Structures are given as structure tokens and as C-alpha cells.
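[Automated response] Your request has been received and processed.

Submitted sequence:
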Amino acid sequence: MTVEAHDPRPKKVQIADALREEVAALPAGYRLASLRELAERFKVTTVTVGNALKVLADEGVIVSVPTRGYFVQSPKGTGEAGQDASGPVNRDEINAIHSEIQQLAARVAELEKRAQSPSSA
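Generated structure:
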């Protein structure tokens, strides 16, 4: 999708409107695409996409988690217990991170094994 040049609405509003419809169908805690991916999709700059996401965050539709991304906010979750400054807890994301940590630990162990191999040969 691209932003329509003949549309009188600002680009950020066009993008926010398009994303608002999509986000409504997503579960709470779902991570949105990155700024770069969205910029490529809408054929605009990352600044414009960031401005559109700020509109949605200001409306409480999504939440920004620094260094993690943008996540769908629970319709009832804005400001309620269970929500902290780090954003919504997503069990699937926690499990994915745990799996990544295990894979990295295995890779580190393999690299340590390889590093010791040449010295003992």
C-alpha cells in the first residue's frame, strides 16, 4: 500500500488510519512490523511512519516499548493493573526469547569447544 497523493489528509494520518483497521483484528501484545518495514510498505520515510505510530500510541491503540518495538494494546488494558512501563507481557514472546537464549548458549559452548580443540591437538 502506498500513501495517496491526492488524499487531503496528511501522510501520517493516512498510515495511522490504515494501521488502526489492521490492529483492531490483532490480539493484545502482538508486535507490529518495524519502522523500516512499515516505511517500505507505505513508501514513506521512517519518520513519517514514526509519526503515524505516535498517533496510534496517543490514542491508546498501541504501546511503544523502547528498544523492543510497538505492540497492540489491550482495549481495556490502558492504565490498568498488569501493565507496567515495559509494556504488555506476551507469553509467546517470552518463550521465543528463552528459546533464543538456549540456542545462543549452545552456540557459545560449541565455539568454546572449537577454541580448545586446536590448542590440544
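Summary generated for your ticket: The first helix runs from residue 11 to 24. The helical segments are 11-24, 35-42, 46-59, 91-120.
If you did not submit this request, please reply to this message.
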